[in-house]
């Protein structure tokens, strides 16, 4: 799906701002059929949960409704008019007036609705968007809705971050021509000093396709005709980690000399490969330094915010990070575009977190029910997961910053049924994009001895918490166990190992001269221990600390106002560990030459 843009043939109107808002109630059936009553308004983009002080809104389970009046620009007659929702967490419905025009499942990828037949250029219409936060055993991520003794609906889920909901990203109104470009796919390669750009342009109807490629000065460096082709760029400047360079591919749809449609796409020429235990970008070994992150900030929840975007990337640069994982869902497209422009490497993850009933068994790793079964996570869940993979790849396939797909976080890969569930999904991801490696983040219950799917993947990403959830406060024992396990993975599989999660909670200002958990000092010592182990094992090709910043979670006796494993506080103040990481990662500058 192409992101809406203003071009010579397309126009775009942003619909962010304050919308009328209401939670679903039996007292107001079919709320899209009239103007929402009451004085409640909600900001778009934002999660609605933290905006209001009313717990009935914050804790509501089910549908909520956003509504506003929209005027169609009078010059849009003759083309197609489309509403695009960048994300509705976790399901969405769009109504133009009284008419349902789109439905979508999945909270982190966009969907749109052609409303041409329901609106008139120059006139207003009522736009209503419903959003549901319900999670079940056939959604991604999964969850369970139960009833409390007093009759309230309660949402339970298996992931350790707050189930924020609503319109957390932008809503757009845009116009496109009747005959238009519907999609573009770009694959780049390098042949000596020459870069190659294979392109494929999909259209709504037959028409002549012309493409040109411009460098950053605006000079045309290659042209092509036809819907599919290859462009060759002599002396190409490559997209590199820490040194981004973007070319602009301009696709045009022509009828004779008449321009029917045009679409620009910024691309980077680079290669990604796995060779033994090495992860190669442009043929050179790359070592990941950075974090698992969250789209999470005070008041906004998961609402996208450009100010936080800029500041977070400034902090990544300050600390010496070169990469991050979009834990545990696809982030806003603006985040990836920013990474493209600034040379930050991204591991792009689906929203498949919580496919592990063993977590209900605590540290025993033995769940009350098998994770993969017709009654728990079966064919319907797998089909939903497959659709998430399709939409993730379709949205993000052209970003040079995205170097790997992560298909799930901490699934029960040690349980029977895991291979039957995941093998088709890995095949699907490879068929959709054969150019990028695939990985998954391995839960602590799954070891190199009992994991049933590790051989299917190109890179092994391990989430490990020796010294925190296991051997808490005993870093000497934790160090021995961590090293033994990493050596076991390296010897068993001969693949790159990325420590995709490792960290310890720390309360700001709590200090001790001893190894006392929850202190800033223990967090520092914990990370230093892991780094000593990494440096002794050649197969380790990256370290992503959990987490970049403290974040909101559901209630739990092991959480103090959220997860405190961030090396920055939730409002982005550095803890002591941030300075230690900066010292380490700044020394790695020569480890990833550009």
From TrEMBL:
Keywords per UniProt: Glycosidase, Hydrolase
Protein name: Beta-glucuronidase
Entries under Pfam families matching the protein: Glyco_hydro_2, Glyco_hydro_2_C, Glyco_hydro_2_N
Source organism, top-level taxon: Bacteria
Organism: Lentzea alba
PROSITE patterns according to UniProt: GLYCOSYL_HYDROL_F2_1
Every Glycoside hydrolase family 2 catalytic domain range: 272-588
Domain Glycosyl hydrolases family 2 sugar binding: 14-177
EC number: 3.2.1.31
